[in-house]
Amino acid sequence: MKRAERGFTLIELMVVVVIIGILVGTITFGLAGRDREEKLRTEAERLALLIEMARSEAIQRNEEWGLAIGPSDYRFFAFDATRKRWVEQKGQPFHARTVPDMALTVHVEAMSMPGAKPAQDVPSIIMFSSGEQTPFEVEITPAWKAQPWRVTSDGLARTSAQRRA
How far is 78 from 123, CA to CA, in rounded Å? Predict the structure, then answer.
């Protein structure tokens, strides 16, 4: 028996649709994971850059600046010498920032300080008007299973962000 018309059977079409669905799903999940990793990297690099900018502001204004790190947020302060207190900086780019789906931990001079709000708004990292700053390591740990990022400075060198090995 000879067929006059040739085409695909319904089963062949369904197999092709299932294969395409599997490929699209795999690509979508791969991109979603990469997007989270990119956000983690961006947050680490942003924090390092903001610390360097605050350090530069401290030098230019001849005043001390500070950084308070909480479990999932951080805030910048400038020291008001006349009132003898830290004043939170609320303007761009130093406004308070929250890091969703990530945990922050700060280690200062071999002393581990879990990311709790500092008492009476006292920053844990100080940027001095001389250009020096408190030696520190801030670890940014994602909520998902991945290696954390570290933002570090020895107090003299530029602040850097790198993936923890």
Answer: 10
For the record, the structure tokens of 70 come out as: 């909480």
Distance (Å, rounded) from C-alpha 80 to C-alpha 90?
Answer: 15
pLDDT tens-digit readout, 28-76: 666 555 788 899 999 999 999 999 999 999 999 999 999 999 999 999 9
User: Among 151, 158, 90, 85, which Cα is nearest to 118's?
Assistant: 85
CA 161 – CA 99 distance, rounded (Å): 16
Mapping DSSP to helix (H, G, I), strand (E, B) and coil, where does residue 3 land? Answer: coil
Structure tokens at 78: 């400038």
DSSP letters for 6-50: ----HHHHHHHHHHHHHHHHHHHHHHHHHHHHHHHHHHHHHHHHH
How far apart CA 115 and CA 6 sit, in angstroms, is 69
Question: Comparing C-alpha atoms, which of 56, 39, 37 is closest to residue 159?
Answer: 56
Unique residue bearing structure tokens 């360097």: 52
Which structural domains are found in the chain, ordered by start? 12-163 (3.55.40.10)
pTM of the model: 0.74
